[in-house]
């Protein structure tokens, strides 16, 4: 997918992070996730074992803001804190978190180095053949920022394309360039800048009517800028490119045979969504309501 790049945890969002990185995926049974058939396993499974021993081992991709260590060595991040709460609610009080490379997550899970894996991994059919995903915890799409009050009434890439006065700033090499072009934005109204900070400067100086990047990157940039003359378009319509939405959905994954663990995790995650606690956790790491997963399910996403 793509690389999200920025300062602090922003570097995550312009890199192809876990959500879109390509890793080697080997199929455990060829089953589809969500509606997939369980691989042969004892009825007890990993969940019962974890409850009995009081801890579980979780593999995290070492990427901000999903999972990382603070300066004092504490493990935190969006995926870490969600897993910590869900597991505790399942009666598993100790989480042994291990940071690793994104490409090692699925192999480590299948080799039973980890009991579950998470941190920036998008659900897609290929991965669903190798692991059993829980329902998504967040979603990542595109976002735009404009002058305060949105004077050109821009709510989508199509709106930018239709307005001859709308020039949009985007980082050179970013995937958004292709999205804009396929949405009908002429090349002469796509202002290419060297980095995201330059996109912000172009918007502030009036050289562009909008700037675009992934939603979390945009939000973090605006929070850092503290400029009340620009704002994020919160009712932005996600682009549909070649018939598919560009939005991706990140989730925790289990071994194919651990259906009981997945279902129990889903039940607790649903409670967090309904209570609003999921959003509170996400907001600590730069996410907004725009990044909530909505009604998306692993079963549907695994079908592509």
What does this entry look like structurally?
The protein has 304 residues and is an alpha/beta fold. It folds into 2 domains: 10-25 and 47-139 and 247-294, Periplasmic binding protein-like II (D-Maltodextrin-Binding Protein, domain 2, 3-Layer(aba) Sandwich); 142-245, 3-Layer(aba) Sandwich (D-Maltodextrin-Binding Protein, domain 2). Helices cover 34% and strands 19% of the residues. The chain is built from 13 helices and 16 strands. It has helices at 10-13, 17-20, 45-53, 78-89, 105-110, 125-128, 157-162, 176-182, 196-205, 215-225, 259-275, 277-283, 298-302; strands spanning 55-61, 68-69, 75-76, 94-100, 116-118, 132-133, 138-140, 142-147, 168-171, 190-193, 210-214, 230-232, 240-241, 244-245, 248-250, 253-254. The strands form 6 sheets. Strands 10-9-11-8-12 form a 5-stranded mixed sheet, sandwiched between helices. Strands 4-1-5 form a 3-stranded parallel sheet. A two-stranded antiparallel sheet has the order 2-3. Strand 9, helix 8 and strand 10 form a beta-alpha-beta unit. Helix 4 (78-89) packs across helix 11. The longest helix is centred in the C-terminal third of the chain and has 17 residues, at 259-275.
